[in-house]
UniProtKB/TrEMBL annotation:
Region (Disordered): 93-149
Signal peptide: none
Parts of the chain that traverse the membrane: 21-54, 66-86
Organism: Anaeromyxobacter paludicola
Keywords assigned by UniProt, alphabetized: Membrane, Transmembrane, Transmembrane helix
Protein known as: DUF4190 domain-containing protein
Compositional bias of kind Basic and acidic residues: 93-104, 116-133, 140-149
């Protein structure tokens, strides 16, 4: 049988029920949004385990039961938040969030952007050629590019 050293007798440990309850409250506070829900899951699981250990080791029953109950509630809430945010629960979306453009639409959009920026790109090429002491490069290609030679 192990004996307790006199120096260890005077040490006061925090009540196990209070630690479990603190974990449960922290889990409840962090289970409400998708970014913090994984933390809520971990804290909730730790709160359930700590509450169960506290109940087995003779902590005040009221605190231990509250810790286990609140931790279980936080676990359920965090799981629900994660499932909803992942789209697994609450209205399955059949359509994509962002619609892809067809190749024709993509070409038309790029052509419009090319036409809108052609003058600025020509000025930039001329300035670059002037700085380098070369003749301005002639535009070539579909978008009027071509750059330096």
């Amino acid at each position: 049988m192990a004996t307790v050293a006199p120096a260890e007798e005077g040490k006061r440990r925090p009540p196990r029920g209070s630690v479990a309850l603190a974990l449960a409250v922290a889990a409840l506070l962090s289970c409400w949004n998708a970014l913090a829900a994984p933390l809520g899951l971990g804290l909730g699981l730790a709160g359930v385990v700590a509450g169960a250990v506290a109940l087995r080791r003779g902590a005040p029953r009221r605190r231990g039961r509250a810790a286990v109950g609140l931790s279980a509630l936080a676990l359920a809430a965090a799981t629900g938040v994660l499932l909803v945010s992942a789209g697994r629960l609450g209205g399955g979306r059949e359509e994509p969030v962002v619609e892809a453009r067809s190749p024709a639409e993509t070409d038309a959009a790029l052509q419009g952007l090319s036409e809108r920026t052609a003058e600025a790109r020509a000025r930039a090429r001329a300035e670059l050629s002037r700085v380098e002491g070369q003749e301005p490069a002639s535009p070539r290609g579909r978008d009027g590019g071509g750059g330096r030679r």
